[in-house]
Structure to design on (136 residues):
């Protein structure tokens, strides 16, 4: 299942939580934007401190996820629509929504901002249930 992945679920996957299993088992192919990927990378040092993990390990986990990331050229045609739909709630979500609209994929997120913009969304719990993966 291909999904446009938000930073929060990618960070969860990097930590080895249930999101990692969904990707590692080949049940989810995450796509995201270069902006989202940059946001994820910026959070790695803080996550490392919080969870007692070396940043290098977290970076290796990120690479192992095999995330496909796109720049603005891929979703440029949908930026204006995405701005209209979500910019008031969270301007940082505009690129990911534009990508989701472009590639016509659901958004995988724990962020409620995407709930009212006309795209299918999956929270972690919803996705795990759909894929038959148990939370541990």
């Amino acid at each position: 299942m291909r999904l446009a992945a938000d930073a929060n679920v990618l960070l969860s996957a990097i930590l080895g939580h249930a999101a990692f299993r969904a990707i590692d088992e080949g049940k989810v192919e995450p796509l995201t934007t270069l902006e989202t990927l940059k946001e994820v990378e910026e959070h790695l040092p803080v996550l490392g401190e919080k969870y007692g993990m070396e940043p290098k390990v977290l970076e290796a986990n990120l690479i192992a996820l095999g995330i496909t990331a796109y720049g603005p050229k891929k979703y440029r045609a949908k930026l204006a629509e995405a701005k209209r739909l979500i910019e008031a709630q969270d301007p940082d979500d505009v690129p990911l929504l534009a990508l989701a609209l472009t590639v016509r994929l659901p958004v995988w997120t724990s962020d409620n901002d995407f709930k009212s913009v006309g795209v299918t969304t999956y929270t972690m719990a919803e996705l795990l249930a759909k894929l038959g993966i148990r939370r541990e």
User: Anything to note?
Assistant: The domain at 2-131 is CATH 3.40.50.1010 (Rossmann fold). The mean pLDDT is 92.
